Design the sequence.
């Protein structure tokens, strides 16, 4: 069966060019970059080049890049490390729509005695920057706000947020895991102190990420061990993955225009087609302040798991913010924070595209989804009664 | 991806008896949009109180649809008396099992059937829904419903209860109350509350030994925890198997003190001294 993969915010296909770049570093060039011999030294050279490639995609200096094992580690290292660098400060500011890599950590830190402010968002998923300004106190050690939301693709004005945070004298960490590779980022033009990225979201392998730490930022290492990464992250480097991440960043930079033109056009056509052909379908999140590849749609009166199972039978892979698919009982915290009504929150589907998607695939999805939605609505006790009283809701 | 049985997938992909019976003799509706699943069951019932036809409409995940579908197959042709004996276990069993997190789908099927039977017999649906007092505010689940799933499915953890009826799956504030219900059920069954039950413990105690052991257990196992929260406990008297204590400091004012007493103090004393002990608070 053919697979139409539109779940690229979950993870991406490793670009074959990335794999080719990595291959020599398994069986041939397997040296340890820290070793004092030429065999290891040539590997150190390759890691150095990867560091440059990663730095380049975000306009950073290579010395500001620390390789990690994933986006989650980068987020944990940034927040935890900053708290340890400012032991007299106990407060964290974040938002209700962050990824669990940040929110669950903050919850954990709260149990250990830190205080956490989670900023709300409006129905389009946007923040109120005055509220942010008011939330930051002299005791705020770190403000952690994502660049782009993984579920809705909504983009926060993080450059403006950085200005506010610096003005208030705190440290700003930005989870840019979904943004890097999809939209241009230039650390020379903003005041963000730390920024997380993850390889598997941009066609590099899973299990490699990076944390950008601006020069002069206080940092306490999260992984304590050897002197790797300039004493900022102990542990022998995952060389092949790092080489892959470097190559993936180089490619993403080259494809950046395609992302905001061809990929965006595919996304727009898919979204417009579904909204036009399916009644009671709604877009979640702001129409324009959004990643070019992401579309979160709610199909009212039905539940997401059923939609995904039927889509999967047609070979279409996407994800849902419904409760049933996550194993929790509440629908997506992001959609609930935006106040998406329960009629829609349970039936949300996220389509996230990449440069590997084609026009034919969009046609295929546009053909397959409407009957799936009608079929489930036929089964739903709410569908026929949607215009009657709200008593049964 | 859930590990659904072939039977579940078959009933999800080819639902039997979906839709609505016109002019039904009985209607059972449970669940809501907010909860994320809902089932509307309509029945045709003949003069001999036999279910002549059954149809369902379901809002929910794959296993909710499959549970509803198989339920209609199971009940067609049964008398109401026979149908009323169907439990959620029967539904899950007919589907060759459900993932633990999805057991509430089978419970929903059983409840819709009950609601329909009650509806036929002229009892209000609301009556059924609101029996008992609400324990889980997030999902509106009452103590009676929790007790029932615990009893019928022999549940022993809060997580199980959440899987079967959703209670405790939201803010988690009600977890202590759910724990209490489980403990009550297990005490009825005569099972030791703490699972560390095979710890060594003197078999038969004299009264003096028992008193010493109780005092020792309070000092070693209970007081340090309470002290850490700014509270304290005092042993007032021991009357047979009744242990009378007074809570001090922050514990005394704490709304959760009855919880502290039962789940904390009593559980420890049962574990380390004797299953027969009960703890009561006295004011002193
Ligand atoms: C916004 C965001 N932050 C962090 C992560 C975690 O990244 P990783 O899977 O590399 O740990 C993800 C990935 O799901 C994400 O979307």
Sequence:
């Amino acid at each position: 069966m053919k697979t139409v993969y539109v779940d690229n915010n979950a993870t991406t296909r490793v670009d074959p060019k990335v794999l080719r770049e990595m291959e020599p570093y398994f069986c041939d060039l397997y040296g340890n970059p820290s070793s004092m011999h030429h065999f290891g030294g040539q590997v150190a050279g390759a890691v150095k080049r990867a560091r440059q490639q990663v730095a380049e995609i975000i306009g950073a200096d290579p010395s500001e890049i620390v390789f990690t094992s994933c986006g989650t580690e980068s987020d944990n290292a940034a927040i935890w490390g900053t708290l340890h660098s400012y032991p007299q400060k106990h407060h964290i500011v974040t938002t209700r729509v962050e990824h669990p890599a940040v929110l669950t950590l903050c919850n954990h830190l709260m149990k250990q005695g830190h205080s956490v402010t989670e900023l709300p968002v409006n129905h389009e998923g946007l923040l109120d920057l005055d509220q942010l300004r008011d939330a930051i106190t002299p005791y705020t050690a770190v403000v952690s706000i994502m660049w782009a939301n993984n579920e809705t693709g909504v983009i926060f004005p993080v450059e403006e947020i950085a200005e506010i945070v610096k003005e208030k004298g705190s440290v700003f960490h930005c989870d840019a895991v979904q943004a890097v590779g999809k939209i241009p980022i230039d650390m020379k033009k903003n005041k963000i102190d730390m920024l997380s990225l993850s390889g598997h979201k941009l066609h590099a392998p899973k299990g490699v990420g990076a944390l950008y730490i601006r020069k002069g930022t206080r940092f306490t290492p999260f992984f304590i061990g050897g002197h790797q990464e300039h004493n900022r992250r102990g542990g022998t480097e995952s060389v092949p993955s790092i080489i892959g991440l470097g190559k993936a960043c180089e490619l993403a930079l080259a494809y950046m225009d395609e992302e905001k033109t061809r990929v965006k056009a595919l996304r727009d056509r898919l979204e417009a087609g579904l909204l036009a052909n399916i009644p009671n379908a709604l877009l979640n999140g702001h129409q324009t302040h959004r990643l070019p590849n992401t579309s979160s749609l709610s199909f009212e009166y039905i539940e997401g798991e059923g939609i995904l199972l039927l889509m999967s039978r047609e070979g279409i892979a996407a994800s849902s913010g419904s409760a049933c698919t996550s194993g929790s009982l509440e629908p997506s915290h992001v959609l609930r924070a935006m106040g998406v009504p329960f009629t829609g929150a349970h039936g949300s589907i996220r389509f996230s595209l990449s440069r590997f998607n084609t026009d034919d695939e969009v046609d295929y999805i546009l053909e397959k989804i409407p009957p799936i939605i009608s079929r489930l609505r036929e089964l739903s006790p709410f569908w026929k009664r949607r215009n009657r009283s709200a008593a049964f809701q | 991806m859930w590990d659904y049985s072939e039977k579940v997938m078959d009933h999800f992909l080819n639902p039997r008896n979906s839709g609505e019976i016109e002019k039904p003799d009985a209607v059972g509706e449970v669940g809501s949009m907010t909860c994320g699943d809902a089932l509307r069951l309509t029945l045709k019932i003949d003069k001999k109180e036999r279910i002549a036809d059954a149809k369902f409409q379901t809002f929910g995940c794959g296993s909710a649809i499959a549970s509803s579908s198989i339920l209609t197959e199971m009940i067609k042709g049964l008398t109401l008396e026979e149908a009323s004996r169907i439990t959620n276990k029967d539904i899950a069993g007919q589907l060759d099992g459900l993932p633990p997190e999805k057991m509430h789908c089978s419970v929903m099927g059983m409840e819709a059937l009950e609601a329909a039977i009650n509806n036929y017999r002229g009892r209000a649906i609301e009556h059924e829904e609101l029996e008992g007092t609400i324990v889980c505010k997030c999902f509106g689940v009452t103590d009676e419903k929790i007790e029932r799933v615990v009893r019928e499915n022999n549940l022993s953890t809060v997580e199980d209860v959440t899987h079967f009826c959703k209670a405790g799956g939201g803010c988690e504030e009600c977890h202590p109350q759910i724990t209490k219900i489980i403990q009550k059920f297990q005490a009825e069954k005569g099972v030791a509350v703490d699972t560390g039950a095979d710890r060594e413990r003197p078999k038969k105690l004299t009264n003096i030994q028992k008193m010493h052991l109780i005092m020792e257990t309070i000092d070693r196992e209970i007081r340090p925890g309470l002290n850490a929260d700014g509270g304290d406990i005092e042993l007032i008297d021991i009357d047979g198997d009744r242990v009378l204590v007074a809570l001090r400091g922050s514990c005394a004012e704490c709304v959760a003190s009855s919880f502290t007493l039962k789940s904390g103090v009593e559980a420890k004393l049962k574990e380390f001294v004797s299953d027969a002990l009960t703890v009561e608070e006295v004011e002193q």
Summary: Chain A touches chain B through 28 residues (CB under 8 Å). Confidence is low (pLDDT under 50) at residues 389-393 of chain A.
